[in-house]
Amino acid sequence: MYNLTDKLKKLIPYEPIKGDFKIRLDANESFLNAEKTVIKEAIDEIEFNRYPDPMASGVCEKFAEFYGVSPNFVTAGNGSDELISVIINAFLPKGAKVLTFAPDFSMYRFYAELAECEIHVEDKGENLQLNSEMMIKKTTEINADCILFSNPCNPTSLGMTRDEVRKIITSTKALVILDEAYMDFWSESLINEVQNYDNVILLRTCSKALGLAGIRLGFAVANEKLTFALRSAKSPYNVSSITQKIGEKALSNQKLLRRNITEIIDCTQKFYSELLNRNYDFFDKIYETKTNFVYIKTDYWKEIFEFLLDTSISIRAFEGFLRITCGNEVENNAVLNALDLFKKEAKNEDF
Ligand SMILES: *Cc1c(COP(=O)(O)O)cnc(C)c1O
After folding, report:
1. pLDDT per residue over 162-185, tens digit each?
2. Which listed residue, of 11, 133, 172, 184, carries a Cα 20 to 30 Å from 278's Cα?
3. Between helices 254-277 and 241-252, what is the axis angle to 10°?
4. Atom 2 in ligand 1: residue holding the nearest Cα
5. Any long-range contacts for 13-21 (C-beta under 8 Å, 24+ apart)?
């Protein structure tokens, strides 16, 4: 009989929130859908009988143009998730010490465990804010081979300045995987200087600010040596022709992308202010946001999560916290109305 390894026996498939909900604010997607004409055009241009370009040169060039980097430093992936997996598997030997922080993006641990790394999870402490001092101390203490974090952070919505991140990078020989999945919503990116460091791989994704979660497209930016290694380690045809072509067209429309990003930022800040203004006494803290979602500390996370699900609104619940993706104005108002209703009912039930 074939036996699964112990490591595999413990795993279960990733499952986002189950069910059909009218309003989906649980995955930090953009509330703006892609332009369909562009996608139809892209489909028309594809030679479906041919393999895609293994280097995804066209889309990497457009990405590089949009962010003002050299395409020589860019590698495309089937979502940044794939890149995290490839990097961990290819760059780190079994047993390598990987330092992550909690709370942070859950997939880091998943891939590191699968690659049989030794994982160290450091708690961010009461204010949930990462700081270079603590990170450097911990990196040295455990002699980490790799340090991995998101900036701005999912789920806390907080960010670290460029200066802070630079301090971390220059203090260590460990590989720094800097996940800037939400940096389109903030202005402290290191994307224009990663090539100056020999230990940094920066990740970006088209799934959040660029509104293309459906096509699965992410990018790694690093110096030439690391880029060459990454391109060599990935599977050759990892990004499909459809994704490459649609990504290329979408990234060419810089004006539209910038307008959409601004709209999402404005909408998030408005939603955040509105949540603050309503002074809900069941929220302990609403964290300032550098992203397209808000993170909330509350003892009533379970009750509120269930209450919103009952009104067909799905958000993300974590032990003691809620994360709500910014939707469009109608969706955000639906959340606010539901919270008002929760407040009323909570009063009646006296809790
Ligand atoms: C959503 C997210 C990603 C995953 O992006 P894909 O490109 O869709 O795989 C990576 N990192 C963080 C922190 C995210 O929130």
Report:
1. 999 999 999 999 999 999 999 999
2. 184
3. 80
4. 181
5. 17/314, 17/316, 19/309, 19/314, 21/309, 21/312, 21/313, 21/314
By percentage, how much of the chain surpasses pLDDT 70? 99
Within 10 Å of residue 35's Cβ, how many Cβ atoms? Answer: 14
> How far is ligand 1, taken at its centre, from the CA of residue 205, in Å?
6
pLDDT at 351: 53
CA of 80 to the centre of ligand 1 (A): 6
- Helix or strand holding residue 23 (H, E): strand 23-24
Name the pTM for this structure. 0.96
Residues 6+ apart with CB under 8 A from 308: 314, 315, 335, 338
User: What residues are in contact with ligand 1 under a 6 Å CB criterion?
Assistant: 28, 79-81, 105, 150, 154, 179, 181, 205, 207-208, 213, 218
How many Å lie between the centroid of ligand 1 and the Cα of residue 345?
A: 36
Structure tokens at 217: 């497209």
CB 177 within 8 A of CB 87: yes
The residue whose CB lies within 8 Å of the most ligand 1 atoms, and thus the one to mutate among 63, 109, 207, is 207
Give the mean pLDDT of 314-327.
Answer: 97
Report the chain's C-alpha Rg in angstroms. 21
pLDDT attached to residue 137: 97
> Considering only CA atoms, which of 103, 93, 302, 64 is closest in space to residue 202?
64
Distance of CA 171 to the CA centre of its chain: 25
Give the C-alpha separation, 27 to 253, whole Å: 24
Q: Which two tokens stand for residue 326?
A: 């910014």
Residue 218: in which H helix or E strand, if any? Answer: strand 218-221
Distances (CA, A) of 223 to 92, 197, 252: 18, 7, 24
- Of 232, 231, 166, residue with least CA distance to 199: 166
* Residue identifier of the C-alpha nearest atom 15 of ligand 1: 154
C-alpha span between 316 and 311 (Å, rounded):
15
